[in-house]
Specification:
Layout: E1 3-13, H1 19-35, E2 39-55, E3 58-70, H2 72-84, E4 88-95, E5 100-101, H3 107-117, H4 125-150
Helix pairs in contact: 1-2
Amino acid sequence: MQLVRKYETVMIVRPESDDTLLTRLQERLAGALESRGGTEIKFVNWGKRKLSYEIDKHNKGVYLYYAYLGGQATVAELERNLRNHDAVIRYQTVRLSELAPFDTYDVEVEKKRAESLTPEREEDEEELYLRRSNNDDDEDDDAADDDDAVA
């Protein structure tokens, strides 16, 4: 009988990381999780955000959320992988439940619960800003067209 806990890990990755690097990181973590007998619940890319303070000369970072079931050895292996990955600048793991037999967890129910509790990726702050500035330019052009129509 395997005893497990529910954990979540939030990682901050260098802002210049592309989708292929993030996919490789996810696959690496999934492999480490499976090798230690863990089960993935959810992996979400929360997008690029401004950091509260500078970390390793970075003011922004890509936030990743990872929820899973596993034991203490599973967490140690995941954190070892994160520590050794060059793109990861910070991570934190939080224990969400007490030790219980794996059979007591219904993985599908946990996945549905995670879907409802964790936000999906929102628009990056930069993309939102650029879209707003483009919309402002369009509105200025529309206002100039209206002035021409009145004259």
